[in-house]
Amino acid sequence: MNSYPVELLVQHVPVMFVAGLDPPQHARNPSENAPAGVNGHAVSDGRETSAQELRDPFSILAARLRNALGARRRSATWDPDKSHRFNVLLVDKEVRFPPRKIPPPQHATRMDEPYSSAPGVLHSPLSPLTPSSPLYPDGLIAPIWVRKHLELIPSVFVLFLRIWEPPQPTSPLEINNQDRDEERARDTDLATEIGLRKKSTSERGIKLTVVLMASRHMLEEPTLDARLSFIRRQSGLDARAALFVLSPLSTSELNEFVASLQEALYESATDYYGAHSKRVRRKKNRYSHQATSLPPGSGPSTGRPLRSEGWTVRYEYKMATFAEFRMEDELARKHYEDCWEALRDMFGSTAILPPRTKRWAEAKVLADSVAFKICKLYLYHSEFSHALAHFNRHLYRFAELQRGWGIGEETFEFWSWVARQYRVLAEMLEYGVRAGLQLPSPITPSAGAQSATPISSSVSPGEVPATLGINPANAIQHPGYYYYAAASCTQQRYQRFLAISDQEDPSTTSSPALANERKVDHQAIIIELYTKAYELFKSHGTGNGRLTFHMAYRIAEAYYSAGQFDLAVKFFERIAKTYQREKWGAMLRSILAMWCECGRQMGDVELTVRLLLEMLAREATDSLEERRAIEEELVAIFQSTSPTRPIVLEPSDFAPILHPSIIFWKSEVSLGEPASFQVILTAGDGGLPGLEFSLLHIYWDENHPPIIIEHFPSEDPSAHPHTDLGQLRSSGISEGPSQPSPMIKSDLRITSSVPVDLTIPRLTLFLNTGSWNVEIPINTTNTLMSAASIPRWLTTIDLPPRFIPIHRPNSQMCRVQFRPHRLYISFQHDEPALIDEQYPIIIQITNEDDEDLQFDIDVLLQPSEDEGVNHITLGDDSSTSLIKGVSFGIVKPGGVVKRTLYLHSAGTGGDRILDLSIQSHTIQPESSNMSPNTNETLRTLVVHTVPAMKPSFTITYTRDPEPLPALLDLSKYEPDAVEGQRIAITTVAVLSSGPWEIVVDSIRYKPENVRRARVASCSLSFVEDEFPCSWSHGDAFSLTCEVDLYEENNEDFSEDEIPFPGHFEVTWRRSEITDPNIAPAKTLLNVPSLRPPDDGLVALLDCPPSGRLHHPFGLRLTVQNRQKFRTAEPMLDVDSSEAFVLSGPRHARLPMLLPGTSDEVFFNLIPLSCGFVRLPTFKVHDRRKLDVLRENEESTSTNPSGEAPTDPEEDRITAARVPVLLVGRDLRPGRDSLDLSVPGDELSLDGHFLPVYPS
């Protein structure tokens, strides 16, 4: 930001002058000049004080106040803090303010005051209307005007003074009238001094605050209030926040006082700057409708008064500045934007601002400063998109204007201005980030940034819309990005400068701008900007290190252009290592070329040789001629120079000069079997005819010496030397455009007696020419490129060469391993397996090898598809999933070992999958260092499993015919009392479904404690003597249980399901298995939960099972209300029958039945005929249900179908009938049952039949 006046960029905060804290004059060092204060008044720093002053509490208080107030000085470029703090300046008590207005000189004419209403009007010394002003006659804003309000004129003046204190009396009764007179005189002098300062501040509208320093003893004096009132009245101080009394305090208490003082005076400061804004606004309104015309005959060389557009710029800028002093950011930004718009309009007319003039340059600086002010105020509120949009807008608009002024992209002035814009933005963002500004992540484009326009538009109609991606010009970046943009623009500036400097036109080369440009150290600026960008890219951790290395490359390039080759080499070394590791061959070309040139300029022959070899290795040339030139330069260096030491190139930062291809003929060989391999070294296009290699070292193990192949120069190219290490054949293939790349080929064989992975990790080429010994390592595991995409085995060296493609992965490796063991594995078992049984599987292993083998086995049981938990048992180990490391012992050659694996299956039928791993080990003697030969054989066994038996269940429900207990029956409330008893008749049928005959040893009922159910009887007690018995496929066994169901009184709502109170256990085994180690299987038969049907109002008819002719018998009708909450009002109707004589009520209204109660009606019947005779029809209706049906019938409309109407009363009576059930035939399915063979309550409405026998 040094390109612009600091006054135009600094953050404005209210200014406070503090006077009266200077150390005593005799404490200053007379041999040193004290630092100058405001208006040249000396202000001592108080570094040297006498011992007496160090003990003076008021001297200590003044020093602490200077430290506390000096720490609150605020004049930074970036300061978004909105706390009520001031920019505190320590000044002398006699400080004077600059004159507000001065009279015009006596020779001033009407032309000098175009806006004056009368001669002799006073104006500011910095006004364009004042002839002595630097802005006269058409200037806009001078930085000195901003400096005046930043450093010369405060908004609040704080004056520290010492109040006079009389000496302490020796006696409480002592009265000294002389001290009273001196006290009054001292207070009068103090009030006079304050009044003089009050007069000077009141003339400028500045708030004056006086702080009187007194001792703690003085604060307790009763006369203090009267003295303070006298001083306030005599000096004319304000009544509010104008007079304070301060005694010596600690540092923490003093900081609190300073903070409270600034808080109390902040409103006065804002009022001061607000008054300035109102004054400027009035002047703007006064001059807004006036226009200024050029005087006749005035031209560019004559003084022209400021036009109305210029006055608008001045007023808007001043109102923005004063609003910024008041910390009203939104209002300040609005005025700054209006100022920028007015400046843009002024630049649009060359008549108002002629290009390349002094006022034009000042206006350009002002426009740039205003633009950065606007961006900074946007950034204070984290409006990043708006800040960037305005920056791009300023850049685009003024770039267009400069093209119109003849300062376009072809000039260095244009790029100098653009670079300055990016640099100031980068510095502003850097200040903000240091102060805690959180930049947004550029994952999604910010709202509103799409409206920003870059300098030049390169978007074509066929491109993807910007909404589908992120344009860096429309998303705020970290400061390093803009430093990089500034550096790039500075490079463009330097190139344009060089182009203009090379021209022979005297009018161009002799311009003042070019003369100033020659004084600029362009390379230093470029290096500085790229260095800042480099550091910021590293610190912000962008996640892409290549951008950081690109910055380093640009720095190295700048050092290279500046001739600082040693610094350029340091950066090239750092960059090249990363690019070599990441194999960016194309990007290394320019780096290697400049790096090599640096070595030449530095005279470093060894570095030059190393880089020339690397350029050959990476083919960092575009033509064969350049490659030959590099070879010739190498040969010339080898012949004309001598190195100080042998050169050993590092494989990590060097590409192979010959591309290696290591191929093994086989991927695996056994111990002692030769492994044949080839080493093929291939040069790039054109070969290396100028270089001759003397040795090749082949490393296959770091613990063994390498295989050395030596080259013997021979005049006969058909000679092929041989070595004793296998067979070596080498040949050179002649160069030509139709021939393949030159290569060197060697065939070798390696035999190993221990298991190992054979590889050729590295090769080493030796280049011995003259006194040069260059060792070139070749890393075969991490090469940049391959000579062929598919590995090929060279079969002949005759022309043309013949190859065999090797279509095998990892052809550069051969594994030497033990010979696989020979064994035979078999499984014996009888499928299918049955659920719940211990299923034996015999594992038999036969050793068919010629040596002793030790076998271990791992068994993995895969989980089944159902939720059943399966088990496997092998020996003493049992698991639900994995049995590991079960030893089968040592087996001699030809021996057989057997083990039995037991599989216990649960759940449903299906396949059970067993994965078996058989490890075989050779027996090594203790003295042997060789690891044992271990083989692993995998087998998968699938066992089909079926259930041994399939149960089926039938459950029906009946009611208890006994009457329900009365409502007030106290026995219902006993702890173990039950009521509402029902009976569930459960039939269990077990079908033998397995293919094998089984022997059932027993079937037992295992009771369980269930609160609402218990088994009353079971048919198993009658068949216990029939077990054991044999069941074949298709055999069935049935049993029946009666379960009593009831409800508990302490429950408001019963559960939906009632668990069956127990289960059945079937103990069985296969009939053909006699192994005593196999325990009998146990299958559990779990009866489904009981879900009795919902009950309501029901009638139970209890009569004998048969009758005798003419013999009377009794009949009982029990009406039970089994509803939970509804009361019933039953009505009884009995139809007569010709077969019986009935004695009892025929039409009766029964008592109202509360929930859980019942009522009984008794009848006597005499049969009149024999046979299966129908009983009289007993009809029971619920009167309450009948009333509800009638109400619903009245609320609905008539029948719209057009059918013949039916009797609605008859339909309602039928719907309200209560089932009348015969005791003993009250069988119903459960709520979820789909068995329709069991009758329900709806089938018992038409009556019942009774067999009648003759008497």
From TrEMBL:
Record region (Disordered): 24-51, 171-191, 280-306, 713-745, 1189-1215
Signal peptide: none
Subcellular location: Golgi apparatus, cis-Golgi network
Cited InterPro entries: TPC11, TPR-like_helical_dom_sf, TRAPPC11_C
Biased composition (Basic and acidic residues): 177-189, 713-723
Keywords carried by this UniProt record: ER-Golgi transport, Golgi apparatus, Transport
Domain of life of the source: Eukaryota
Name assigned to this protein: Trafficking protein particle complex subunit 11
Species annotation: Hydnum rufescens UP504
